[in-house]
Amino acid sequence: MLIVGDPEDPHVAAVLRALSEPAAVIDASSFASQPLTLTSTGIHVQGTSVRGRGWIRRLAPAGWADAADSATGVKAAERSAGLSALAAVLHDERIEWLTPIAALGVAENKPWQYRLAQGVGASVPEWVVTTDPDRAPRGEGWVIKPLGPGGFVSGNDAFVVPTTVFSDQHRPALTQAPFLLQRIVTAAGHARIVTVGEHVYSASLDADGLPLDWRMSAAAHRAFSDEPVPSDVAVLARRISQAAGLGYSAQDWICDSDDRWWFIDLNPAGQWLFLPATTADRITEAIADYLMGAV
């Protein structure tokens, strides 16, 4: 078994505890402490042959890529070599990945997600991606959100760019980088839906009193309930993950005041431990079962 991630990541640690036998854990930063050997006949981590199934949680620890971008000389060469070695592992057909790296990479793209979700019958809010201020929507009722990662590091500070109500003051920013503009769905409730293979797990969050982007509320992360989404929404979530080729997905959905459910986006390696323990534990066990070949 092979896990790509940081063993200090709580999600990786939770899966490791759920396994009945050890798994190798590597990422782009680990090769000094976790010796790797690749040959035409096998993969070895710390001298032990690795085979069977694999799960990709994170390619590198948080902040590692930012440090790599600023590195020069020998350090930059070392980081580049580490990424190349990891890429060789990630594309090794001798490992049966829960989500293959190619599918994981494509699934990060939100416009692609939306077209895919609409194709399987899910409701998706009207959206546009543009760098032309004149092509951005006019009037009220739109939000603007990052098209790429929603967080970045500047100096010693980390920043998160939240979903924000779009106004004319945002138009000049569109010429600097592409942003995603999306029609506002007034939320009565939110749901995090996690798929692991054929299985669907969900938890609900009352939208009352929450900001437009519930993730900006620390309390909201502890306020989810075990109430599952309707069965037809769970079916749509599974269809989306299957159409995307994802063995794992963490999806965000909104229920409006008319009880209509809207697909908002998905993360092919998203978090689940903030959900109620009864739900989170089942997700952890499902990933562990996959790695051990129980499913």
Task: Write structural notes for this entry.
- The protein has 7 helices and 17 strands.
- With 295 residues, it is of the alpha+beta class.
- The protein folds into 3 domains: 96 residues, no CATH class; 114 residues, D-amino Acid Aminotransferase, Chain A, domain 1, CATH 3.30.470.20; 57 residues, no CATH class.
- Strand 10 and strand 11 form a beta hairpin.
- The longest helix is centred in the first third of the chain and has 18 residues.
Question: What's the helix and strand layout?
Answer:
Elements: E1 2-4, H1 10-18, E2 24-26, E3 36-39, E4 42-45, E5 48-50, E6 52-56, H2 64-70, H3 73-90, E7 95-97, H4 101-107, H5 110-119, E8 127-130, E9 142-146, E10 151-154, E11 157-160, E12 164-165, E13 179-183, E14 187-196, E15 199-206, H6 231-243, E16 248-256, E17 261-267, H7 277-291
Parallel strand pairs: 1-2, 1-6, 6-7
Antiparallel strand pairs: 3-4, 4-5, 8-13, 9-12, 9-13, 10-11, 14-15, 14-16, 16-17
Notable characteristics:
D-amino Acid Aminotransferase, Chain A, domain 1, 7 helices, 3 domains, 4-stranded antiparallel sheet, 4-stranded parallel sheet, single chain, alpha+beta
CATH topology of the largest domain: D-amino Acid Aminotransferase, Chain A, domain 1
Total DSSP E strands: 17
Mean pLDDT across residues: 90
Low-pLDDT windows of residues: none
Strand percent estimate:
25-35%
Q: What's the overall geometry? A: globular
H/I helix tally = 7
Rg over CA atoms, rounded to whole Å, is 20 Å
Number of domains: 3
User: Fraction of residues in helices?
Assistant: 25-40%
- For the largest beta sheet, what order do the strands appear in spatially? 2-1-6-7
**Chain oligomer state:** single chain
CATH architecture of the largest domain: 2-Layer Sandwich
Q: Gap between N and C termini, in Å? A: 14 Å
